[in-house]
Design goal:
This is GAF domain-containing SpoIIE family protein phosphatase. Residues 97-108 have a biased composition (Pro residues). This protein starts with a helix and ends with a strand. The chain is built from 17 helices and 27 strands. It is globular, with a radius of gyration of 34 Å. The protein is an alpha+beta fold. 30% of the residues lie in helices and 28% in strands. The chain folds into four domains: 2-174, 2-Layer Sandwich (Beta-Lactamase); 186-308, PAS domain (Beta-Lactamase), CATH 3.30.450; 311-430, Beta-Lactamase, CATH 3.30.450; 469-689, Phosphatase 2c, domain 1, CATH 3.60.40.10.
């Protein structure tokens, strides 16, 4: 291999342009390895790539891929971004397309010692492989070398990787690029530096001109401060007595926290030339600790500019925005620290004093009217789980029993890394609105009217469900059990679903717990739900076990209810022995939470209700302990169109294992963060043993 490298280097150094370099690399070094095509990409400012030379590809294909804009997902672009050698299978999006030769070139043997082992010959149904490696000069990626094979190459061939990296280093020295170090006129370099210094001093914000300090591996280990702008020297936004900022000094000495993230961003900009900008980024040099930061490369230097965020000005702007709209209270919840900020108007809307603790958005249900719980739950699910902007109208219960009609709008705020930084929004008191205001603001009042109609339909659907079943927030304590239930109807309010739940103390002192789901929607499903639920109550008074109750209920579904089909879980709890007997009919098994962990109960045998005339059901037994929590639910809580049911059950288990202050809060969190998207009814029972 050393002889090939010397031959390739001799030919490359004598070449007139990069096109000749690419042909020389393929002929002298890469063809003996079995490669059939090579491309030399030149890195341009902003993350773009230009084809500086190629060999082994067709002319038409090379013309089509002469330039790759920033953000286009090609193998070379990925290597430029990640700055490391990468192997790509044939399924990867090609940069110039697949190399046209289908066999190694003449003179090379597929079975030679230099060919990576394990590569099958190419046939008409199989693509090749390619490797991309960055070409680095003084810590800066000046281009990408891409090599293609017509057969699969092992991704962990260390010998081939070292040979390719050596060729990339050779290309980096010979690439005809303005970013490669070469003898330059000192006066021109001084003029360019003076121009950058003038730009830094002319900016209205503090700035530093930095140059990379390379380690023994020729990679940036720190950045030297080449110039400090006049605004920094005056102390604008910087506590100079706290930081040793001076020309010739080290950035890590002036800002030790730069090692946590800023240094990596500087290395990325210095290497690729792609600018970086971020709002509200933590910055030690900033007087407030948070700033808008901009990083751009200029030749071998990086210009760092920042603008401080003034917390007082931010709060003043929030108050001014709320006063302009009228009767609006603004808030912001920091997702990292948990800090909640309210303005004075929001304390007034809630009927609280500014010394009281703000109410977290996640606990909005605790202060809303029970009839609005479903609408508030959907709003919280959209904002806190799906992380999208949402709005909802509801009735706010204030101290003293006074209720006010409110409209709340909230939106998530994301940082430069895509993580949630905060949730902010505003409440508006709409209690005093009058229909005559429609003429004053058509757009605003049409929206309010639409929301009022939607809220009325939601309340009507919820009242219809509550006429069939007990209120979803009705909790009960019986025989040492604390029982809480939740019901969430489908978003299509005019369709009444077939989900049901029940929790009742029997004459035998046992407690009957059940959930079920009749197939379909509409009046027929609701009627069938009432038949099965009431039949199960009556059958349970006989003293029979859950398996026998399921057998009888199957006969009811098959013969007496127009052959409906349904799933169900039935459980009987004996308070004297603390034993739970249960059976299932095609339903999802309950979840047991114990000692900070959670798991599903075993899947017992039992077909759908009404599916077969004669059906047998298996019965399970569970010894409960103090502090245990049992969760029973219908599939509307977890069903998704893009995942199988097992994946959805595992996600529900992960949510259920989270800590919760009360059983009611646990059920509310399950409804908020469940990942369903099928618009189906949902029933949820929580049972906690004292």
């Amino acid at each position: 291999m050393s002889a090939r490298l010397r031959a390739a280097e001799s030919s490359a150094l004598g070449a007139r342009d990069t096109q000749v370099v690419a042909a020389s690399l393929l002929e002298h070094a890469l063809a003996p390895l079995g490669a059939t095509a090579v491309a030399v990409w030149e890195a341009e400012p902003g993350g773009a790539l230009a084809l500086a030379g190629q060999a082994g590809f067709g002319d038409e294909e090379a013309r089509r891929w002469r330039h790759i804009p920033p953000g286009v997902p090609t193998p070379a672009s990925r290597t430029l971004r990640e700055r490391r050698l990468l192997w790509h299978p044939s399924t990867t999006l090609p940069a110039i397309g697949h190399p046209p030769p289908s066999h190694p070139p003449p003179g090379s043997s597929p079975a030679s010692d230099d060919r990576p082992a394990g590569g099958p010959p190419l046939d008409e149904h199989e693509g090749g492989a390619r490797v991309t490696v960055p070409m680095v000069v003084k810590g800066r990626v000046v281009g990408v070398l891409e090599v293609c094979w017509p057969y699969a190459v092992p991704a962990r061939s260390v010998r081939v990787e070292r040979q390719i990296e050596a060729l990339a280093e050779l290309c980096a020295r010979t690439l005809d690029s303005p970013y490669v170090a070469r003898p330059e006129d000192e006066a021109t370099g001084a003029a360019q530096h003076a121009e950058l210094v003038g730009l830094a001093d002319a900016l209205p914000d503090p700035s530093l001109v930095l140059r990379a300090r390379l380690d023994e591996r020729r990679k940036p280990a720190d950045f030297e401060i080449q110039h400090v702008s006049e605004r920094v020297m005056r102390g604008d936004g910087v506590l100079l007595e706290a930081y040793p900022i001076h020309v010739g000094g080290s950035l890590l000495e002036a800002c030790p926290q730069a090692a946590r993230g800023l240094l990596g961003l500087l290395e990325q900009v210095h290497a690729t030339g792609e600018p970086f900008r971020a709002e509200r980024m933590p910055l030690q040099l900033s007087a407030t600790g948070v700033a808008d930061v901009s990083l751009t490369r200029h030749g071998e230097s990086v210009l760092m500019v920042w603008r401080d965020h003034d917390e007082d000005a931010r709060l003043a702007g929030l108050l001014e925005h709320a006063q302009r709209l009228g009767r609006i209270g603004g808030f912001e919840e920091n997702a990292r620290t948990g800090e909640i900020t309210w303005n004075a108007q929001l304390y007034t809307l809630y009927g609280r004093t500014q010394g009281d603790r703000p109410v977290p958005l996640e606990r909005l249900r605790d202060h809303a009217h029970p009839d609005d719980a479903v609408a508030v739950g959907r709003f919280l699910r959209t904002v806190l789980h799906h992380r999208r902007m949402a709005a909802v109208a509801f009735r706010l219960r204030r101290p003293g029993g006074v209720a006010r009609h409110m409209r709340v709008v909230a939106e998530p705020v994301f940082g430069p890394d895509g993580r949630l930084m905060a949730v902010r929004g505003a409440y508006q008191d709409i209690s005093s609105q009058h229909w005559t205001e429609v003429a004053l603001s058509v757009t605003r009042d049409q929206l309010a009217h639409t929301e009022q109609q939607s809220a009325a339909r939601n309340r009507l659907a919820l009242q219809l469900q509550q006429a069939i079943m007990p209120p979803s927030h009705g909790a009960m304590d019986s025989s040492g059990l604390h029982i809480a239930v939740r019901y969430r109807p489908a978003q299509k309010e005019h369709l009444v679903g077939g989900d049901w739940y029940d929790a009742v103390a029997l004459p035998s002192r046992q407690v009957l717990l059940s959930v079920g789901d009749v197939a379909g929607h509409g009046v027929q499903a609701a009627t069938g739900m009432v038949v099965l639920r009431n039949a199960l109550r009556g059958l349970a008074t006989t003293g029979a076990g859950p398996a026998q109750l399921m057998t009888w209920l199957n006969m009811v579904a098959h013969h007496l209810a127009d052959r409906m089909t349904a799933t169900a879980v039935c459980a009987l709890y004996d308070p004297s022995s603390r034993v739970l007997h249960w059976a299932r009919a095609g339903h999802l098994p309950p979840i047991l939470l114990r000692d900070g962990d959670g798991s599903e109960l075993p899947v017992l045998k039992g077909p759908l209700l009404g599916a077969f005339e004669d059906a047998a059901y298996e019965e399970g037994r569970l010894q409960l302990r103090s502090g245990d929590t049992l969760l029973m639910y219908t599939d509307g809580l977890i069903e998704r169109r893009d995942h199988n049911l097992r994946h959805a059950q595992d996600r529900l288990l992960a949510i259920a294992r989270r800590g919760a202050a009360t059983l009611d809060h646990r059920l509310d969190d399950l409804l908020t963060h469940s990942n369903s998207d099928t618009d189906d009814d949902t029933c949820l029972i929580g049972v906690q043993l004292h």
